[in-house]
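FORM 7B: Structural annotation worksheet

SECTION A. Query
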Amino acid sequence: MQVFFEQGGKKMKKIILASASPRRKEILEQIGMQFEILVSDKEEIYESSAPEEIVKELSLLKANHVSEMVGKNDIIIIGADTIVSHEGKVLGKPKSRAEAFQMIQGIQGKVHKVYTGIAILCYDESGEKKMINDAVETKVFVYPMSEKEINNYLDTGEYMDKAGAYAIQGLFAPFIEKIEGDYYNVVGLPVSRIYQAIKS
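SECTION B. Predicted structure
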């Protein structure tokens, strides 16, 4: 079933989220946006070295790949990618508990940055495309943590499949001192930036 984003009583373009992330899905559902999900399985290869450029590249790669699967008429495709950066190093999804421990031990008591790249492809009735490709940055301050606290958190298993080995919206919340920027960006989708872009 096709679903549409309604604005001012006018039926608008169909929206497709090019992501398998349950967190991104929940964020869009939270604001009442109607959309479909179509996931890109294209290998994630990038050329950039700066975190904000990496996420822009990867979000655009996902959106472009999904655009090849659908008709390019009256449609909006949203691609997104999130990474954690600390002291110039990109912290991806940990491949093991030991790697997750190293990641959290590295960010505890310090500040790190979370970048989410967004790519919004908007096709009109004739198939003409307008594109927004941007990155949003949020600074995250983490309280000092003991090795026991780190291990207790890792025991929950929540770190798996999480960039930086933690979930700000989950059991890691007691260790977040403060953030500077968009909270939802850390969860995985700067939803206000996306909504305002689509609205305009």
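SECTION C. Observations
Residues 22 and 82 are 13 Å apart (CA to CA). The longest strand covers residues 129-142.

SECTION D. Sign-off
Analyst initials: ____
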